[in-house]
Amino acid sequence: MTLSRLGGSLDNAFGAVALGVSIGSLFWGLLTGAALTALVAAYASTLVFIKIIGGLYLLWLGFRAFRSAACPRPIETRDHLGPQSAFPFFMRGLIAQMTNPKAALAWIALMSLGLQADPPWWVIAVIIAGTTFLSVVGHLLYALAFSTERIVLIYRRARRSIDLALGTFFCFAGIKLLTSRT
């Protein structure tokens, strides 16, 4: 995380990383939507298996969030004096997202929440478009907010509470997914 500003270059760097992550999320959404739709269309019973995997993954994320909340470790910050061009930062975000196995599992969990046995194409399109929009807005807001020292200090104080809230949400979603009938 960067705590200093160098003209507009760091803002561009943060924004470029955020856009790279968001585009990577869009790619994962498209891949997951196409693969799961084909899989469910061919074998309707696989949706149950996919929901179990997605639910267990959400419970695992909840466990990790609770474990993080229990740990009093401080977050580390550092100044980053990277290249002036936004493209290397965009690629860094894209590559990080595309090589992150948690991103694929998160998309499987997300799609399994929204898919039924024979989903129309527009349901998948709405899920992908909506989550991509939220990803772009969310990551750009994170980039903007966490480029300021004040937000980093606020987050340091609130991190454990945020982790508890995330753990609760992930566990709730995982249990809901595992206990859903469809």
UniProtKB/TrEMBL annotation:
Keywords tagged on the record: Cell membrane, Membrane, Transmembrane, Transmembrane helix
InterPro entries, sorted: LeuE-type
Pfam families named among the record's database cross-references: LysE
Membrane topology annotation: Multi-pass membrane protein
Residue intervals passing through the bilayer: 12-31, 37-60, 94-115, 121-142, 162-179
Chief localisation class: membrane
Cellular compartment(s): Cell membrane
Name of this protein: LysE family transporter
Species for this entry: Bradyrhizobium vignae
